[in-house]
């Protein structure tokens, strides 16, 4: 009985995947050491420098999960590139605001201040496609 229910469920999900109208998709991607839930037209601030230039389109390969309101596909640990394709554009590459690091030794008249700025990138998610 359970096998028939599971096979019916798999058939429903497969028929919905094959149809063109799956609704608005979301994906969980691993980017910059963090997992982020994204949909189309989202802006993502990544705390690392991305090797692509501003305006370049990149493909996010580490997709952990993709879904819509009716179904969810889970990767163990990631989904294969033939199943889902998440495409993004590099919008901006900047540095963070200055972070002040202070060094102090007591009773020695020793104080040092150092300003640090770290690279960051902004991405816009262009599309999430199933079975590209």
Can you describe this structure?
The chain has 132 residues and is mainly beta. The protein has one domain (24-130). It contains one helix and ten strands; from the N terminus they run αββββββββββ. Strands 2-1-5-6 form a four-stranded antiparallel β-sheet, with no helix packed on it. A four-stranded antiparallel β-sheet has the order 3-10-7-4, with no helix packed on it. The relative contact order is 0.23. GO terms for molecular function: RNA binding; structural constituent of ribosome.
Strand order of the biggest β-sheet: 2-1-5-6
Number of E strands: 10
Helix content: 10-25%
Q: How far apart are the termini?
A: 34 Å
Counted by DSSP, the helix tally is: 1
Strand-pairing-aware structural class: mainly beta
Give the low-confidence spans. Answer: none
Estimate the global geometry from the Cα principal axes: elongated
Radius of gyration: 22 Å
Total domain units: 1
Q: What share of the residues does DSSP label as strand, in percent?
A: over 45%
- What is the arithmetic mean of pLDDT? 92
Please describe the biggest sheet, giving its number of strands, its sense, and whether it closes into a barrel.
Answer: 4 strands, antiparallel
Q: Give helix and strand order, one letter per element, not per position.
A: HEEEEEEEEEE
Protein name: Large ribosomal subunit protein bL21m
InterPro entries: bL21-like (IPR028909), bL21-like_sf (IPR036164), Ribosomal_bL21 (IPR001787)
Family: Belongs to the bacterial ribosomal protein bL21 family.
GO cellular component, one term: mitochondrial large ribosomal subunit
